[in-house]
Amino acid sequence: MKKIAIITDIHGNYYGLEACIKDIFDEGIDEIYCLGDLFTGLPNTKNIFEIIQREKIQCIRGNNEGYLLKFYDKSLVDDMKTAVKFKSLQFIAKQLSPEIFRYIVSLPKTLEVKSFSQKIILCHG
Predict the structure, then answer these.
(1) Of the candidates 45, 77, 84, which has an alpha carbon nearest to the alpha carbon of residue 64?
(2) What's the confidence (pLDDT) of residue 22?
(3) pTM here?
């Protein structure tokens, strides 16, 4: 039987993610799933994205990825784009490369894990 690891709410913590990945591989895990909120919080968007790609971690969209996409929705007039309480989100959103933006757009809201005798649906919350 495959061993899986489920991680979530990285919030840009590159060093925490690297340590977590090391522990996961030390445990002989076969697959890693991330339940969202990858980038917001700390300014390590590019580094987090590189780890996710390098380790082929399957991810879903968390609420913070939704906020990042909403930030770029030109049809919305929202205080998210200007309010002080969203400064960290504004900072991260402005760092998104086109490649990372396309990746966020492509993230599903749920994943179904089929490697068990029962189906497991993974979601952010």
Answers:
(1) 45
(2) 96
(3) 0.87
